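Thread: "does anyone have the structure for this chain?"

Original post by V.I.:
We have the sequence but no experimental structure in hand. Need at least a predicted one for the grant figures.
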Amino acid sequence: MEKTNFIIIFMGDMGYGDMGCYGTKAIRTPVMDQIAANGVKFTDLYSASPICTPSRCGLLTGRYPQRVGLPRVLFPKDEEGLTNAEKTIADCLKEGDYKSACLGKWHLGCRPQHYPTRHGFDYYFGLLYSNDMNPLHLYENKEAIETEVDQAQLTRRYTDQAISFIQSTHQENTEQPFFIYIAHTMPHIPLYVEPEFRGRSNAGVYGDTIECIDYHLGRLMDTLDELRLTDDTLVIVTSDNGPWFEGSTGGLRSRKFDTYEGGMRMPCVAQYPRLILPGSVCTSPASQMDFLPTFLTLAGLDQPSNRVIDGLDILPLIKGKSMPERPLYYLRGTDLNALRLGKWKLQIAEGSGKGRRKPEMPRLIDLEIDPYESYDLSDEHPKRVSDMTEMMQAFDREVKEESGLPLTDIWCFWLFRLPFYNQWYLIQTTYQNLIS
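Reply from O.Q.:
Generated one for you, tokens below.
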């Protein structure tokens, strides 16, 4: 069997409800929908963050961005970025003789030491940060090749480069596998689209940009077919965080920036004919941080052993099997906001830093019957609230000790919002844990 090739299509600010297979009637996404039909649709897959820099960090390193030191959005003036102490998917796959390309929005630091080519990628073509930041230059590898960027052409140009990279790799050595990470600029604002796609959707320019991405994704899929690489290639299509001013969350609560489901639950479809049964649906919670360990398993490689990898190998889920419950933490900046465990989500705050809010908290949600986060069940399940609070305290302590940050006030601020019997139960439980 040939080695597995990997392609990630990563949209900017595309909402959970913005693919046809997730319910939209306003935007046509036939190629994305066909990928779901050929493979698997994830109903409960999460970003590592509701904002762009840390979400990309989580995907590429398999680690919560707070561990990496990139919990916030980076700007052109910032000196921070992804350091050489971290290993990306591309870094890890080099050990398996993979060739890797990063195309599109990087946003993990814009100093030379942060460039994609310093983090395992053999080729880079794209923007170093968001398209609403200045100065906006188009880079190829380490050089700015355009200082006036026609953003309407970016989706096409990223795809052209991906096709060329696949063709050159295939021609040079058919045994050499590849990893391509296409981080599309759109539909992050400001919105730009090729003239032939303007007005095509029923969702304004926002929808037009997604239909444009879908069309060019079709070109990429056709290339895999022409080169007989489809059966050997895992293709994943997803987004970095929830939608901003436009876009659909599919009814999920809130949007980008927030740790409610609308900010962090992502659309995600994937196909890999050798492994994934057509028409599969995965309803188990998973994370974009799981891509790194899953890719390494498929490539026959070991994951890094000298650091915590928060992602898991989710091949069993992809194959339609079950896995044990695992915690998924929702962080905004350096603050821990919520925890999901199985069908349960405990939310203790919104936001981060000075903007952190704690209204009507904690809120315990049964996401299986209430994905819209409308009903608080904390009064009915005090032990579950206590157990999940302890898990959050332990995780917060571990990450903050690793990064040298102060601990989050996980439970004191909301303890006295609860009915008396729940207060007494939590106090007893905490005391027993301290003396045991």
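V.I.: this helps a lot. Confidence is low (pLDDT under 50) at residues 411-421.
O.Q.: and The radius of gyration is 21 Å.
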